[in-house]
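Dear colleague,

Thank you for sharing your sequence with our group. We've completed the structure prediction you requested, and as agreed, I am returning the results in plain text so they can be pasted directly into your records. Please verify that the sequence below matches your submission; if there's any discrepancy, let me know and we will rerun it promptly.
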Amino acid sequence: MNTVSEYRKWVKDIIKEELKPFLLKNGFKTTGAASFYKIEPDLVKFIDLEFSRWNTYIAFAFWFNLHIYAGTFSEEKSISIKLLVTKGSPLFFKNISFLREKEFEQYQITPATNMESLLNDIKTDFSSHVIPFSERFKCVEDFIGFAESEHKRLGQNDYSYRLAVMMAKSGRMSEAKKYFQESIGDREDLVKAAQIYGIDLNS
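Please find the predicted structure tokens below.
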């Protein structure tokens, strides 16, 4: 196995033969060959595959993303990223390597790669990190708790804006205003975003 097409086939095969049965067993459903989702009462967890655009037979990279979107999707027959972006509110989007504190790490295949070892690494990531992490979130309030703990740990960060929106949607306006004030981004854009929920950041 030493071509890009062979590497891609290997990845798709291990998804079909290893990851798909495992994720289905853990309550996920499949949409397409390499995407999986699990619907909760007011959020959706979505996993998809991404290949590097710079892949060659010498260095081939891929990874899996975990998305969490707030919204009610129980009536939907299937879930796609397009649907989530259109109807949902983004809460979380990370390469799953984030869950073992190596956020930007990718799976790598080279002519010297031990494929069995790589497969074991992928299976371990899903069984030891992806499923335990995703199972923490049964509703939006669960995610708010996680985001608040991350906010305390990291300080001002990208969870601030998500917390602001979730608090505003929950009617917790004083908390929402605080998180809007702390959010990273263009001040004018943040003021406009807060105004959607009737919050004046200039007062």
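Summary note from our side: The two ends are 63 Å apart (CA to CA).

Kind regards,
the structure core
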